[in-house]
Amino acid sequence: MKFVPMKDLLRRAMEKGYAVPGFYVWNAESMRQVLEAAARLKAPIILMSGPGETASLPMPVMAEVARAAGKCYDIPSALQLDHGRSFEHVEECLASGYTSVMLDYSSKPFAENVEALKRVVAMAHPMNVSVEGEIGAVGRADLITKEGGHASNLTDPDEALAYAQATGVDALAVSIGNAHGQYAKLPRFDFDRLEKIHAKVDLPLVLHGGSGTPDDDLKRAISLGIAKVNIATDLALAVKGSLQEQWKKGLNPWFPTSSGEAYKTMAPVVEKWIRRVGAEGRG
To answer: What is the pTM of this model?
Structure first.
């Protein structure tokens, strides 16, 4: 398997009325579970990591590990830098072979966000690497999650159009009431806002903070242009829960054994999300 530009996956998804799930990974074990589940369901997926995962693997090493893991599976996949915080992050990932990059300047003034993403597009597109931008700001639902700011700022449809036209990004992350992390209560999406964005912007739209989204809301969001759904919290909670349960029962004190068992809990989560976004059999 060779990683492909993310835009190739998302354009097809937008045209066919499904979404591609983007799964957070942080080591070889997590990649294996995602890729094996996707291969079983013949689904396109995106492997994502960001600055918060560099404590596990630096970005260049993450790319090498992902390529090594990907050789065992024949599914359409992309490798994305999610929520890059600096041009240095982008440059490092471009040099390492990522096929999609995101520089998150959503919390900065509109003009600064535009100029930054124009620069990223100029760097990435000659290398056939896709670029995701964010307009409006997706905040955090909890105090643990690293992605996003402390508060959300909903996407303005007119600004979304101006941003897409000025930057040339390939995918646009939007803020419609979604948030990163574990929701304390069910999110309330502004579907009127999403419908207006979709009508104005001819780009695949991205839903950050997919974990915890109700099925009906997810289906409606996909019908209104969401072509990529990011999943992180559900995966982390599955692994964490397994480790806690094993150790509470006094099982598998040897960490390689307990962690191996814990990572197996990722596969059902991956399969659930592939089916929920309609990606099964799309590979």
So the answer is: 0.92
